[in-house]
Amino acid sequence: MDKFLIKGPTKLNGQVDISGSKNAALPIMTACLGKPGVYLLKNVPNLRDTRTMAKLLEIIGCKVKSQSNTILIDSTECDNPQAPYELVKTMRASFYVLGPLLSRFAYAKVSLPGGCAWGPRPIDYHMKAFEALGAEINLDSGYIETTGKLKGTKIVFPKPSVGATGNVLMACMNLEEDVFIHNASCEPEIVDLCNFLIQTGVSINGIGTDKLHVKGVKASHVQDIDYTIIPDRIEAGTFMIACAMCGGDITINNVNVNHLDIVIDKLIQSGCDISIGENQIKIKSNQNINPVDIITDVYPGYPTDLQAQWIALMSTANGRSHVTDTIYNDRFTHVAELLRLGANISMDSNIAIINGIDSLKGAQVMSTDIRASASLIIAAMSASGETNLSRIYHIDRGYEQIENKLTLLGANIVRQSE
Hints:
4-stranded mixed sheet
């Protein structure tokens, strides 16, 4: 099992290229199952999760070829609409195959999902939506088995859900009837999925809003599709927060600036100097950090996937700040590890209360999920001394070659095998 040895404090300087979005790539990869065809996906991040998804697609019957950040998926001869526990348990996004498989085969058998080891993330929204579409659902021995010809309907989610919205969209790929989705997710990753589905012939109105009107079209074969995944806004935000905490001057390339409006605003409030270009963000920090409160929310609110990184930043701010997570109330496993680095943080239900201190000190810490890992790397780079960060397989699920990118910016971070 690998670990990171990180020596700090380190200032960051230089340029970094942002990879394609993990949270956009995974559902788009699964959408290739919905209609037989050959799909060329570009700007796909080379991550543990995308490699796991490729294996799952092969089990279902796809032919998959990967080279650098391009994946060729041939779903013409898929004949096994099942997703086994062995793969689904390692990555929650595997559950996305349920929608496109049900759309294409009127049948799917998918293991209950796994993924990050924090808190329950119920699949009720998915199941109730599929039932509204006409599917019959049976839960047996840890597997969800869905059958039935789907029909047009109106679906109203109690609150926006990225996963449920994406799964329903893909379930509609071959449905030649109208489906209306209210309280749909507006996240850029859902917009990217919609834009991809349009290329397969699906009609979608209201893209980027919370009301979607979807109508699929049955096709025996989809003409060759060439699609480029959007940049990863969470990776971009992570590097911006890293510069804010460590100090320095970095340029972030290959980024959609519009996807990061609230993060940019919060970083400016914290004292950073930020300038914006076309697909580029420049950020400077002198480490004189103002305390800034955040409350996570669905897009365009502050993303929950940058909550842990913000807590790390606030741990050395000039005063007290509060971080409230309204998306996942118990997503705070990183707090205990930040305390080991000397941070002064207390919890009140889903609110972290951070009293900023002058500096952190290196220690032995442990990754608990993808974004917690990122927060600990940021904190360790700003801390004095050496930090030993174990269980970094989590970070490999969501960040492409993060240690190489940070090394190019001047960080002292080395991967070692334990």
